[in-house]
Design a protein that fits this description.
By secondary structure, this protein is α/β, with parallel strands linked by helices. It has ten helices and 21 strands.
Length: 437
């Protein structure tokens, strides 16, 4: 047995699991992550100050090592309502990390595989970069994922490839009261001049599910990625997510994180701008109700000159919900001519809802343009009165104001299928807010 923080793991069973890994490199990688779990002093108390993820796991989940692998036909039937019948998108369905090919469709020019299906070149890419760009040195749950992922997903876009439709990825999780089974690992590599849009959904098919999703993304020169994450799980799962992007010269990343439902959700987003002239946009919406708790931790590291980062997160909390935003911007000494902007805006709709927000700047260069700020308040009663004076009832007035609050970010979405999905979810969410006023 070994202890990491206050989480106690059966290292014998975990080592037996690692020894079954047939790929020598991945076996070594799992052991390295296990070593981190045993040796590093993770600062859980500070990094999860407002999010009781560790306590929730200790209270509600089984810490005995078990891996659930059987997929029943009944489980597959539960997936059918989520299948998208739209020729304007590509689609991938995964179940506890395994690609269900009979429900998936992709063009031949995209390599989207489980780790055990890779060809020689793909293995070389994975082995060269895997684990070098995640946050496992600082986060216990990312390190745990590095040991326990069951079916890794590999996405490879070759040089000059422009994928003409968005890829919709639906990840389904089936384990109950078990933190070991639903551990998904993804690796995305985009070569020079490539372009891709991915929209990812996570669904737990049963309640009392803990799922972990760690993604490493490498953007080579002049590549461009739109990455959407939509969290609207009706089963109130507990979820840990870590997205880690490394950008090279003249690359562009646009990340969108939309959080609407779940018990406790933690989102880590880490972007490293390692070359000159990189550009990243980080957008987020969280619209919460009941007792949902969503914690967004973001970090962007400007390492070389002439790069731009733009971050804007907006949230509305109702009921007994809790929101957390912690955004960090690092500008290193070499990163002159950096432009970095960060903003977080929040509206509280009930006396019992809470928001904890902490924008941060750490600047070591002297020729930069950087700003950050946050606001928290309530809906503008004068604006509501004004709309009512123009013949609009109060419910409609509130709906207009909430939609206007989020519209600045929604208009940044360049994929219609994603924009339509977000608008439908928000419409349902706003209706629930109105029913409780």
């Amino acid at each position: 047995m070994f202890k990491s923080g206050s989480l106690i793991f059966d290292d014998k069973k975990i080592k037996d699991f690692i020894n079954k890994e047939s790929n020598p490199f991945l076996k070594k990688s799992r052991n390295n992550f296990l070593k981190k779990l045993g040796e590093r002093k993770f600062n859980i108390k500070e990094e999860y100050k407002y999010t009781p993820l560790k306590q929730t796991i200790e209270k509600n989940f089984n810490l005995r090592f078990e891996i659930e692998k059987n997929i029943s036909s009944t489980t597959e039937k539960k997936i059918l309502p989520y299948i998208i019948n739209d020729n304007n998108v590509y689609q991938i369905i995964t179940l506890d990390g395994k690609i269900l090919k009979k429900f998936s469709n992709l063009p031949s020019k995209i390599s989207f595989k489980n780790f055990d299906e890779l060809d020689k070149k793909e293995k070389s890419l994975l082995h060269h970069h895997f684990g070098e760009n995640d946050d496992s040195d600082d986060d216990i749950f990312s390190a745990l994922n590095g040991v326990l992922w069951s079916k890794g997903l590999f996405v490879y876009i070759k040089k000059n490839q422009v994928i003409d439709r968005p890829i919709i990825v639906n990840n389904f999780y089936t384990s109950e009261k078990n933190i070991f089974s639903s551990q998904l690992r993804k690796f995305i590599f985009m070569e020079k001049n490539s372009k891709l849009s991915i929209c990812e959904f996570d669904y737990s098919l049963i309640s009392n599910n803990f799922n972990s999703n760690v993604t490493e993304i490498i953007l080579e020169e002049r590549s461009e990625l739109d990455y959407f994450k939509i969290q609207n799980d009706s089963n109130n799962s507990t979820s840990f997510n870590s997205t880690n992007i490394k950008q090279k010269k003249n690359s562009i990343s646009n990340t969108f994180t939309f959080s609407f439902s779940g018990d406790i959700i933690r989102n880590n987003l880490n972007i490293s701008l390692i070359d000159e002239n990189c550009y990243c946009n980080m957008y987020g919406i969280y619209a919460l109700n009941n007792k949902s708790h969503v914690d967004n931790h973001t970090s962007v590291d400007h390492m070389q000159k002439n790069s731009i980062s733009n971050e804007h997160y907006k949230g509305i909390m109702n009921g007994h919900s809790n929101g957390v935003f912690n955004g960090k911007i690092f500008v290193r000494k070499e990163a002159q001519k950096t432009n970095a902007f960060q903003s977080n805006n929040n509206i509280i709709l009930s006396d019992n809802a809470k928001i904890n927000t902490k924008p941060q700047l750490e600047i070591w260069a002297d020729d930069v343009k950087c700003s950050h700020g946050c606001t928290t308040g309530q809906l503008d009663e004068n604006a509501i009165f004004y709309l009512q004076s123009r013949g609009i009832n109060k419910e409609r007035a509130v709906s207009i104001l909430i939609n206007a609050f989020f519209d600045e970010i929604i208009q940044k979405i360049n994929q219609n299928i994603v924009k339509d999905k977000i608008n439908k979810i928000l419409s349902t969410k706003i209706e629930s807010y109105l029913n409780e006023r």
